[in-house]
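Aim 2, interim progress: modelling of the protoporphyrin IX containing FE-bound target.
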Amino acid sequence: MSTLEHHGTYQPTTGLGKWMDARLPLPRLMYDSFVAYPVPRNLNYAYTFGGMLSIMLVLQILTGVVLAMHYNGSTVGAFTSVEHIMRDVNNGWLLRYMHANGASFFFAAVFLHIFRGMYYGSYKEPRELLWILGCIIFLLMMATAFMGYVLPWGQMSFWGATVITGFFTAFPVVGEPIQQLLLGGFAVDNPTLNRFFSLHYLLPFMIAGVVVLHVWALHVTGQTNPTGVEIKSKTDTVPFTPFATIKDAFALIVFFLFFAYFVFYMPNFLGHADNYIEANPLVTPSHIVPEWYFLPFYAILRAITFDIGPLTSKLLGVLAMFGSIAVLFVMPWLDTSKVRSAVYRPWYKVFFWLFVVNAIFLGWLGAKPAEGVYTFLAQLSTLYYFGFFIVILPLLGLIETPRRVPNSITEAVLAKSSKRSGGAAQDAAASTDNKA
Amino acid sequence: MSDTTTTENEELPTRRDFIYVATGMLGVIGAASVAWPFIDQMRPDAAVLAAGQPIDVNLEAVEPGQAITVTWRGKPYFVRRLTEDEIASASELGEGDMKEFAPIETRLGGEEVKDWVIVSANCTHLGCVPKVIDTKPEGWNCPCHGSVFDMTGRILRGPAATNLPLPPYVFTSATNLVIGTDQA
Ligand code: HEM
Ligand code: FES
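Predicted structure of the complex, ligand included:
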């Protein structure tokens, strides 16, 4: 393992700085982690989603805490209190639209972040734990968003909660007691709404805790980079500030431009009209669909329409859906290739992009009615989803011939820039240096 | 001191080992007993259970071919009165037509009240409320994932695996139904 050589050390200059440093060296920790910390010099924009995710988490917590000041977590008051936030509370509409669309953008960023990891092999040794912590954050995010969506107590809130807690009834014997334990009753009702509010408040702070572990693990192993070659010397890296800071900030601003467009011009585009109808336990909306970020998993759930032996289609569907996330956890051990980055894996690259297209296709199918040709297509898509992890990843590593991997990040960067400048004398010298 | 003698005699458990194990065990029991109330509080509480008292349903206004929805324990139930034709078409269904076979007699109300079907209105797949239809022999279809039930709530096709369950109920007269108990 390379030892990460930092760019400079913290030198407190002021009296207060020295006083702090001798007692609680928090400024030193910050300096070492976010100023002098060495990052690969060739990071591209795919590496900026992590920063965005941290900011989105902060934004969700801030908007959430102020929404909670006006929200009423009871079945009698929930729906009207959200309308009250929208109409009466000063700037309430803005805060709520930021929170609701913020969840969507949070998920958009996390999906891109996960795809980045899959493409550049970030999950591979020695970053397995870093990857698993990320998967845990993803799970917690899903739980948080699911419970948050129940809070406005609209028709989609109610029926979404009914269907999702209904998953547990798929398990024989223990299923129904577990469902009642979650609901605090026999159906989704006031006790359910109350506990969901409590947990929706709690989980983001648990996410923040896991994020700290995630970043800690990241700073032990260092970041990957597009070449997948580990950092070997100081010339492979640049200091976090200003290089990564500026790049992250620029990407964040662009991301926020899109976010603001949604918040101000199409705040309900990602939502469902049915959720502006108050929950009614006696009538199910004619077409219930989850939020867009759950659609691929929903499609997998519905794709299983057949029984296998004693296992019913219902149980299998639920297992497949949970399995589609569980399989991410073991990804580091499924991939047998010695080469980390897809840049040098010609076949993996193809299967990876197919995986991305397939995931989007699954999302599209999840929004379609579960009948006829859609069910068949969803079954094919589900097959590829699992096939990618369970068959392609292990086999491909054994049979694929990777391209030549550069010896170091610096070599790759110089080769690229000499190609671009048509082989300027200086670059030519540098690359001969490398060959020697 | 006793310490020196016991460390020499490694196979024998010492008094200190005993104290370690005993403390550990007590600690585990203590932790579990403290954890229990935190989990137990999540189960349906007394108010929810009290709302589970049986309910009376007045049937006077329900004509053959009609269905009403009532709630018991916060959950919806269908009370449906079948026409002669509907009973006949449901009777024709055999074992091959459905995923979970149940003879028609077991699905209909008691002796004198054969035209009533009282079933849970939560789809046995994931709990949506199926829509009442009367494309005989189909009686309900679920908007969520497309399960189809017959006139008596038996599962014909779709992702649901079991029939709509029957709540405990009893007819106290020809026009009064009690849901929530089978004792008159
Ligand atoms: C991981 C971070 C979070 C995510 C992904 C998230 C997600 C959501 C979602 C999807 C909704 C439904 C929005 C709608 O359609 O109206 C919601 C509502 C709500 N959330 Fe959060 N949330 C997060 C953090 C928080 C926090 C920390 C609080 C603090 C108390 C909070 C308080 C609320 C409240 C009061 C509502 C109901 C009002 C409303 O519907 O706008 N949220 N959340
Ligand atoms: S809930 Fe009825 S088919 Fe899924």
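The mean pLDDT of chain B is 87. The CA atoms of residues 65 and 82 of chain B lie 5 Å apart.
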